[in-house]
């Protein structure tokens, strides 16, 4: 499942509308949350938390990949949202609260010093560490003037996302999620103990066979034990033998080919 919170407009390839929900077997596994200029922390969270909470409840993912694009921060050169760094990081904190494996990625962001601020703070959130707002002395200290602090306050830009539009969008998306009654769930499983698998006993192998340069190359493929009995069967090991002479011939042919290629190009 993919969920996208983004600025929607007349951009290529023309997707990203709230009505774009996927098709066929993938219908309703794509959620788009298009937002207008000036969205602030409160407005953003009023959509992000209920929608992502429902996703975690219905879809029950085994892992989450969260892209933390910083162009939604206030004051970004290209972005047009009005999020504070703390508001942006609250989304990371919220997803972390589900205790599901979480992979954080970067993304957009075109006011570089604010991108650095944001990802520094969110790294702290991911680790459960509160980062001091006062900027420490370092070789890049002057880039963060004139206040030399970690956080950036939102501006007074107009929020064009009305309460009515946000409520209607949230209702529509939650309704789409309610249609995923039989969502797949790929949960992480603990690795079974090694004692449940049958490993070949090297001591039982023929020593002469192991060291004979003219012998076949042998590879053992170990099958998983029968789910009903959890005991190895007589056919639990398949032996694939590859004739050594065939392997050597193929290697020689490859060496010849590379040699002729080298002569041709030199």
TrEMBL record:
Residues 208-230 have a biased composition (Basic and acidic residues). Residues 184-239 are annotated as: Disordered. Residues 196-207 have a biased composition (Acidic residues). Pfam families: Hist_deacetyl. Residues 1-123 form the Histone deacetylase domain. A divalent metal cation binds at residue 71. Signal peptide: none annotated. PANTHER family: HISTONE DEACETYLASE 2-RELATED, HISTONE DEACETYLASE DOMAIN-CONTAINING PROTEIN. This is Histone deacetylase 19.
